[in-house]
Amino acid sequence: MAFATIQPFQYVAIRLPSENIRVEQIVPNGQINLGKYGSFHTNQIIGRPYNLTFEILDRSEAQDGKELRIVSAAELHAVALVEQAETEDAPTPRTDLDDTGAQSTPKSNVNTHDDPTNQKLTMAEIEALKQDDLGSGKGLIEKIMQSHSTLDQKTAFSLAKYTLRKHKKYLKRFCILPLDVPTLVDWMMADREFSKIMEMRNEAVALVGCWANIHASDPVISLSEASQSSRYLVVDDTGGLIVASMAERMGILHQQHLEDGIAKIEEEDPDEQAEQPEVVPLHKDKRQQHRQSAMSAASNSITLVHTNQQPNLSLLRYFNFDPNNPTPSHPLYTNLRSLSWLQLLEPESDLTYQEPEVIAPEELANAKSNRRSAYYRKRRRWERVKTVVDETRAGDFNGLIVASYTDPVSILQHLVPLLAGGSQVVVYSPSVEPLVRLADLYSTARRTAFINAPAEEKRVPSEDFPVDPTLLLGASVQTARVRQWQVLPGRTHPLMTGRGGAEGYVFVGTRVLPAQGKVEARGRATRTKKTKALTDPDDEPSQLSFKKQKIATGEAVSAHTASTLPPSNEDLGVEPMIVEQNGES
Amino acid sequence: MVSSFLSRGCVAKEHDLASLHLRRDQSLPVVLSTEVTSADHEGYAEGVVTNTRFGSFPHSTMIGAAWGSQIRASKVDTGSRGRKEAMNAKAKAKKRKAEALEQSQSRSQSRSRTDTHAGDEDAVAAAAAEVEVEVASSGFVHILPPTPENWTISLPHRTQVVYTPDYSYILHRIRARPGSRLIEAGSGSGSFTHAAARAVFNAYSATSGVESVGKVFSFEFHAERHRRVKAEMVEHGLDTIVHTEHRDVYRDGFLVHEDEENRDRKTSPQANAIFLDLPAPWEAVPHLTREHQDGKPSALDPNSAVHLCTFSPCIEQAQKTVSSLRRHDWLEIEMVEMQQKRIEVRREYTGLSYDGMRGANAYAADVDEALVRLREVERRARDFHARTLSKRQQANGQRQQQQQQPDVGKLPFNGGKLVHRTEPELKTHTSYLVFAILPRAWTEEDEATARAKWSKHVKIAPSVPKSQRQMKKEAKLKSRGQPQVLNGRVDGEMGETTTEKTNAGTGESTPRAEAEAEAEPEAEAEAPGGLHV
């Protein structure tokens, strides 16, 4: 797996005692400074497992190159374990206190007053202690705790809280977490500008991935199959988070070997893989290995449509992929394809789509080497752009994910027709309003109106139908949110504070292929038949004739449907209706 | 075998599982088939037929259709089939009627046999011909490819189902990714099993050349449920990805019999993601350790951290699980609860013009409209009192006009006001999710080896993109010391390596200081997402 041990050049998340997260690249032979928590050399953690907690040792304790100590799980849980043992001996701590109440008055906060003099150590003394004790800070905490005069008055609850607070302030510990999409989201949410990823929480990332049915494809099967599988379309304004989460689900985000000095030595711009006659043969062999050109993968691929000339995928940097300077060894090099809206919708207006003029081979042979390489570079870029644009315009994608500030209606108008039947359309939005509008545009009522509209009004886009409402089925909007709990013996409750902001909503629909011609629904009385049957304006005969008709067609229309039949005569003289959705109103 | 969940192709093929979308939140899972295998499907002239409340659908009309197609219902003779069967049943039943008693035992048996035989022949003929199918005047379904989501909605409930908001978050948090090895206990209704299979899937077999084939190990202690899940996995083509086992995991742990023949040998599933949907997860936690006292192999992946999630409806269960996890050295223990809301989007019609229509609020749209109406009423009252007959008739005429105007019968799809709210059925609590991580075992020896490898200054060439700063530095070096770079090239080394080399030559302190300088400001300077071009 990608995260067996900490690899050099990998980005990692470092969690500090304050619960803050820092993201750093582990450059070998380097040093990472954690501010007041101290600093450590990267070589001290490379090759070690993830999720361990390290403690920076005092200078005196450090020996034969060992600067860090791994803190055991038992030590990390010490406080909770002790409490747990105590409470589990006595099943209900409250009654226990009541029983022994005669012997010792239970601690309560009745006599606790906020008084700065409770802490006997002065600020200067604490600073001096810090100077003395450069190490783990445990001694410091002990001393502060001892000198706190009201400590024995504190209830168990506040004591635990106090200890924890002190620990966070002075312990020189850190924990290295693998930087994957869930951790990245946590970090962006807590320590970064959350709005840069459209305030997309892990719940939403997970929900989007599942509803969009993003998954990997078998490398052998997908090659042999006539139709390519796992091709997804995406519009991403989250700086690459959506692309990263899709890539993670498809198994093409995390590079397996970063320190490989043999397979890979150089990186170049994809457009600059020019012929270089001066390179030695050895070099050329290596080149051959990576001859697979950028964006060449057809299956298991992500196609990104972007608003600007270049896509904004800056978050992919943390997974060691720079879209402006992609590394051929990274799986996204071949499997992430991008094109602009201009290239998609009006390729003829895009310069890179125009074929560069062909220079005769003999002329080329005489040309200067940099001109020659420029020529090849241009040809290659054109070939790449042309393949991506043509294949995207051909459609047949297996899913569409949109997380964009651009109006989703305009996006869906162009991209939904490019999807294969049965694929999922998922739109994320931080606020609900754009999705409400979208759901309305694909509502059953609007679809019915569209189907029944006279041919000349059946235009898309038009005022009433900005998108073709027959192309998506089961449009729905949902949201999900987790609530965190604290679980401690006798003190289990939801966390008191959380993060507000955008709720985060997800729109889901399924691309379908409407049948050609007239399609009539069943399951409720069609108005044509009823109108014909309604010779008598009275209610009873109409019900009867309906039943008769039911028998005639041999249909098992449920009793429910018959009973909900509107018994009014308001339908007299109404045009025959074609109802698109079975039994739905 | 290929699963239509994971590699669906563009058309629905025979033996594929398809999800027939009937209406919102209502779909019917159907395995497409041309051969009549069960008694339920016997007796149709069209071969295998699925009957829904929206019509009858012979499978021959669906096989070969593109996924997502709208399929019209067909005219299927369901009536006579039913009668024929009833007749068969009567014949088979030990005759109660006097006239039946008169018939000899052998004769009745032979009759029933010929009947079924004739039915079979019919079916075969229909399957071969497949032309008699006639499109019905109304009714349709959409044929959708199966996904864990639509399967979750339509699956046969055996136990409490883990729904999409929960399982999506769980799989995300326990890092179930292509190539992961996931333990699930118990299988239950199989909704999580399907979602997990999709998440870990990267190949159907090891021959595809992937490093680690993603697998789900699903344990169930209820024999019947286990049998059903196992059969489902075969039917859905997921049996190479999901290994099912009938097991009481509290007692017997998580080692698996991967080899069907050799039942004595148990191997480790080498799991790195675990989902426990059990009444007492704390009873299973002792089986999930790095080392066992009795020398059995660990069920966990020795080379990576293990992510665990337990799913318990009651808070006491969650508390007990958490304390047990603490005792067994699990870290990052966290408990959350998932709250999901589905949003109902609708149009709200308010206004006197919608008067008399179903679903509309017969109140004034605004104060002006109310005023108009009130003035009108007021005027009529005045007219009535004044007994001016002619004016009264006129007023009546106006009123009728007003009422007839909206009588188009239906509320306009683009009228009213667009509103949204939470759907009426709300799941306010599903379960408490406890998450925890067990890091890799790391012994003193491991640490010593790592320290030996990484203690000193090391030279490696990265295959990662370089930062602007690095590239500038290299460019500078290139322009300054051309020969150096050339040498580097001849050696087959370029870029980063050259820089490293040069630095290494000047002394060890330089690269360290440099890396330090680089590591810090870079992360700060380029705010992610901030690089709009």
TrEMBL record, chain A:
Location, primary (coarse class): nucleus
Region (Disordered): 84-117, 519-585
InterPro entries: TRM6
Record keywords: Nucleus, tRNA processing
Bias (Polar residues) ranges: 101-111
Family indicated by similarity: Belongs to the TRM6/GCD10 family.
Protein name as it appears in the record: tRNA (adenine(58)-N(1))-methyltransferase non-catalytic subunit TRM6
Organism whose genome encodes this protein: Capronia epimyces CBS 606.96
TrEMBL record, chain B:
Positions with biased composition (Basic and acidic residues): 74-87
Composition bias, Low complexity: 393-405
Subcellular location: Nucleus
Protein's GO biological process: tRNA methylation
InterPro entries: SAM-dependent_MTases_sf, TRM61_C, tRNA_MeTrfase_Gcd14
GO molecular-function term, one example from the UniProt record: tRNA (adenine(58)-N1)-methyltransferase activity
EC number: 2.1.1.220
Name of protein: tRNA (adenine(58)-N(1))-methyltransferase catalytic subunit TRM61
Organism: Capronia epimyces CBS 606.96
Species classification: Eukaryota, Fungi, Dikarya, Ascomycota, Pezizomycotina
